[in-house]
Amino acid sequence: MTPRRVLWLIIVITILAAFINVPSTMPFPQNARVFGQEINVAFFSPANLSQMFPIKLGLDLQGGTQLTLETKMDKINSTDRDTALEAARQVIERRVNLYGVSEAVVQSSTLGEQRRILVELPGVKDPQEAVNLVGRTAQLEFRESPATSSAQATPSAQASPSAEATSSALNDIFSYQPTGLTGADLKKASVTFGSSGTKTGPQVAIEFTEEGGKKFAEITKRNVGKPLAIFLDDVPLMWPPPTVQQEIIGGSGVITGSFTSQEAKNLSIQLNAGALPVPIEILEQRSIGATLGNQSVEKSLIAGAIGILAVMIFMVAYYGIYGLLADLALIIYTLLVLTVFRTGLFILPPVTLTLAGIAGFILSVGMAVDANILTFERIKDELRSGKSGRLALEDGFSRAWTSIRDSNISSLITASILIIFGTSVVRGFALTLAIGVMVSMFSAIVVTRTFLRLLPRFRR
């Protein structure tokens, strides 16, 4: 591909990146006239793009809730306690992920005989909401009236409890007996909207496993015309309980009640995530405000702007026109990195920025400039040896490439190790550093090289 075509490709990519990263407060027309036709261009407005591709902030920047949980291992064998701790961590992590909290942290720690779980939920401002999400056991259980459980051997067609017996059973929720059908038999739960009997609005559709479906069919068969109570953590989901209208074959059903949309969503999350294998106790719960985060972001942005400006001034002062081109490439590099953070290139999840992540990004800026410095010094050496401008440019890039490649690969290996074995803060730093390093290779080898190739001195 010729340098001019590469230049046009760089311009297109830069314009797209600029649109995604333009401040949402910038004024933008809602309509534009093209070939005499009025076209709505509000889709490309900064406010719309900011909503589509927001910059996600971590707990230290946007605030949220932090919980410290302690597991109760009294009834667990000492040899199985580490396994139980990991199982509890995984259950809580599944719940958090299903809830949709981005960049949440769920970590386990062992100190002597104490086994704790640390949960960080960015954006969750209500501590009680967080406690309900991660702390409930969510033990689903279907229970039947005592009259049914004491007469299970009687065919359902011949068993018809009197209205008085049914009324008596409904008045005492503790009299309902387990059927053996529990959340362990559940395959999937999801939120639906519709009507079931007299209930309308959000519902929770449940689907049982093959074995659970058989149990459900048997239970509904013997309880036709009778109430079947649904309990969650020993509390009835609705009262009076629903009445079974007919035998349900197929292993699926609907839980109805006076749910809000959020309550139905939380219930489905807890059922899908399963029950906690060990009891837990909330040792500490903290609401972290965004004030500190806003101050940190402002100071980080100021520090980053000062650092980038100082680097740009140095490059122009020392390398002249070459430094100016390197600065232009640095601006493009910054736009591209921010675009990757926001969009994940539409392949990976967007990056959630923390203070450590911002530090990794600022460090990668210096590494991006370092690649240009290596290239410029190599080109200078080639020019001193008497080579023509075009040959000096190509040989300079070729000889600088090995140093750039090796240093960046070393950085990527280190970042990979930190991502695999590090904690959440360290991972944030390593991830932004790795992204910055990879984009800097593109910036130095493609962008800066294309700019230099278009200079008259390097055309011949």
Automatic annotation (TrEMBL):
<feature type="domain" description="Protein translocase subunit SecDF P1">
    <location>
        <begin position="86"/>
        <end position="144"/>
    </location>
</feature>
<dbReference type="GO" id="GO:0005886">
    <property type="term" value="C:plasma membrane"/>
</dbReference>
<dbReference type="InterPro" id="IPR055344">
    <property type="entry name" value="SecD_SecF_C_bact"/>
</dbReference>
<dbReference type="InterPro" id="IPR022813">
    <property type="entry name" value="SecD/SecF_arch_bac"/>
</dbReference>
<feature type="region of interest" description="Disordered">
    <location>
        <begin position="143"/>
        <end position="164"/>
    </location>
</feature>
<comment type="function">
    <text>Part of the Sec protein translocase complex. Interacts with the SecYEG preprotein conducting channel. SecDF uses the proton motive force (PMF) to complete protein translocation after the ATP-dependent function of SecA.</text>
</comment>
<keyword id="KW-0653">Protein transport</keyword>
<comment type="similarity">
    <text>Belongs to the SecD/SecF family. SecD subfamily.</text>
</comment>
<feature type="transmembrane region" description="Helical">
    <location>
        <begin position="432"/>
        <end position="452"/>
    </location>
</feature>
<dbReference type="GO" id="GO:0015450">
    <property type="term" value="F:protein-transporting ATPase activity"/>
</dbReference>
<dbReference type="Pfam" id="PF02355">
    <property type="entry name" value="SecD_SecF_C"/>
</dbReference>
<dbReference type="Pfam" id="PF21760">
    <property type="entry name" value="SecD_1st"/>
</dbReference>
<dbReference type="InterPro" id="IPR048634">
    <property type="entry name" value="SecD_SecF_C"/>
</dbReference>
<feature type="domain" description="Protein export membrane protein SecD/SecF C-terminal">
    <location>
        <begin position="280"/>
        <end position="454"/>
    </location>
</feature>
<dbReference type="Pfam" id="PF07549">
    <property type="entry name" value="Sec_GG"/>
</dbReference>
<keyword id="KW-1003">Cell membrane</keyword>
<dbReference type="InterPro" id="IPR022646">
    <property type="entry name" value="SecD/SecF_CS"/>
</dbReference>
<dbReference type="Pfam" id="PF22599">
    <property type="entry name" value="SecDF_P1_head"/>
</dbReference>
<dbReference type="InterPro" id="IPR005791">
    <property type="entry name" value="SecD"/>
</dbReference>
<keyword id="KW-1133">Transmembrane helix</keyword>
<protein>
    <recommendedName>
        <fullName>Protein translocase subunit SecD</fullName>
    </recommendedName>
</protein>
<dbReference type="InterPro" id="IPR048631">
    <property type="entry name" value="SecD_1st"/>
</dbReference>
<keyword id="KW-0811">Translocation</keyword>
<feature type="compositionally biased region" description="Low complexity">
    <location>
        <begin position="145"/>
        <end position="164"/>
    </location>
</feature>
<feature type="transmembrane region" description="Helical">
    <location>
        <begin position="354"/>
        <end position="374"/>
    </location>
</feature>
<comment type="subunit">
    <text>Forms a complex with SecF. Part of the essential Sec protein translocation apparatus which comprises SecA, SecYEG and auxiliary proteins SecDF. Other proteins may also be involved.</text>
</comment>
<dbReference type="GO" id="GO:0043952">
    <property type="term" value="P:protein transport by the Sec complex"/>
</dbReference>
<keyword id="KW-0812">Transmembrane</keyword>
<feature type="transmembrane region" description="Helical">
    <location>
        <begin position="301"/>
        <end position="321"/>
    </location>
</feature>
<dbReference type="GO" id="GO:0065002">
    <property type="term" value="P:intracellular protein transmembrane transport"/>
</dbReference>
<dbReference type="InterPro" id="IPR001036">
    <property type="entry name" value="Acrflvin-R"/>
</dbReference>
<feature type="transmembrane region" description="Helical">
    <location>
        <begin position="328"/>
        <end position="348"/>
    </location>
</feature>
<keyword id="KW-0813">Transport</keyword>
<feature type="domain" description="SecDF P1 head subdomain">
    <location>
        <begin position="179"/>
        <end position="278"/>
    </location>
</feature>
<dbReference type="GO" id="GO:0006605">
    <property type="term" value="P:protein targeting"/>
</dbReference>
<feature type="transmembrane region" description="Helical">
    <location>
        <begin position="409"/>
        <end position="426"/>
    </location>
</feature>
<keyword id="KW-0472">Membrane</keyword>
<dbReference type="InterPro" id="IPR054384">
    <property type="entry name" value="SecDF_P1_head"/>
</dbReference>
